[in-house]
Design brief:
- With 341 residues, this protein is of the alpha+beta class.
- It has three domains: 3-53 and 99-217, no CATH class; 57-94, no CATH class; 227-340, no CATH class.
- The chain is built from ten helices and eleven strands.
- Helix 7 packs across helix 8 and helix 8 packs antiparallel against helix 10.
């Protein structure tokens, strides 16, 4: 990863509760300037406003060059969304697009919904400010009897480049590997989405309902972890899972080499990595292996890893990954009950 990308992450993301989860993988003290981006406890709301969202998304007319005169002609019904501080062009839209300002839709909304034992645990900007998120978290980690430590939280995210509707979504962070996981491993995660349309408005009741789920996530997720840790996976079933999850092409070549490398990485995680190996021989270990590989080792194209991981968490890619893993395992075990773990 380039120094420029590391510098962006150190200056444009805020990480809270480091006393509970440690520093982020991208932490570099020499890239943070006068003010560190890590907080031992909760992140103050005013810090998020001041350090990340102290600018506006400005709508500007769009002009195109005339092929006849060579002059500029305004494009009717089009607008550009730009940063007020840097002038960075974030997106081009029709005039029906309505920006959702970060302070109004993330900070003010989440500030209204916050309760005494819920605080901002992380916040950040990606894509030169075109995407933003805020995470609401409980102050303490939860540790299951099986030794799985996690943090339940709620993402609030939106964008100015058209990549995201404003979304509030529950999720879980696994502490041992700093992975985001599906809050409901056996079901679709609950979320609220609001489109960037002219008459869009926040359905505050639905957002509050989603926030209340933060309290329920701990018990629900712990129960799912227990069920998966109690589901044995033999060596033969693990090998059958690898065959189904990473099919091996018959012919030599790049595809076969990539498949071999992926299988080797998954096997190493399964057998030797402390993020996975403690749960080797269980369905939870299988979920951990695939999720950890995808978060930290799989090749990322067209984005930096932190950006890809955050976007997957908000858009549902993490849920799809974990659900697909369990579905494949259930298939090779001939155990459909696993899907309802």
């Amino acid at each position: 990863m380039s120094k420029e990308t590391l510098q962006w992450l150190n200056e444009n993301t805020l990480i809270g509760f480091t006393d509970k989860r440690g520093t982020a993988w991208h932490y570099r003290a020499d890239l943070q300037g006068a003010e560190p981006n890590h907080y031992p406890g909760a992140i103050p709301v005013e810090d998020v406003k001041r350090r990340l969202f102290d600018w506006e998304a400005v709508s500007s007319p769009v002009y195109v060059e005339s092929p006849v005169t060579g002059g500029l002609v305004e494009a009717p019904g089009r607008q550009a969304i730009m940063r007020s501080d840097t002038g960075h062009l974030m997106g081009l839209f029709t005039d029906g697009y309505e920006p959702h300002p970060y302070v109004e839709w993330l900070i003010n909304t989440i500030g209204t919904l916050l309760e005494d034992d819920l605080s901002i645990g992380s916040a950040g900007l990606l894509k030169n400010g075109a995407v933003a998120w805020v995470s609401v978290e409980v102050p303490d980690n939860v540790t299951t009897p099986e030794g799985v430590e996690f943090r339940p939280h709620l993402f609030g995210a939106t964008s100015f480049d058209g990549s995201l509707a404003t979304t509030f979504k529950r999720a879980v962070t696994s502490i041992v590997c700093d992975n985001t996981m599906a809050a409901g491993l056996g079901e679709a995660g609950q979320q609220v989405k609001i489109k960037h349309s002219r008459h869009s408005k926040l359905r505050i009741g639905e957002a509050r309902e989603a926030l209340n789920i933060v309290y329920q996530v701990a018990d629900d997720f712990a129960a799912e972890v227990a069920a998966l840790c109690n589901t044995s996976v033999s060596d033969a079933e693990w090998n059958a899972f690898l065959d189904a999850h990473v099919p091996m092409p018959d012919e030599p070549g790049r595809s076969r080499t990539m498949a071999e490398n992926k299988r080797d990485s998954l096997a190493r995680l399964w057998n030797h990595d402390n993020r996975v190996a403690p749960w080797k021989g269980t369905a939870w270990g299988v979920v951990q292996a695939v999720n950890t590989y995808t978060h930290h080792e799989q090749t990322v194209r067209g984005a930096v890893r932190a950006e890809r991981n955050m976007l997957r968490a908000v858009t549902g890619g993490v849920d799809e990954l974990d659900h697909a893993t369990l579905h494949t395992l259930a298939t090779v075990q001939d155990g459909p009950a696993l899907l309802a773990a």
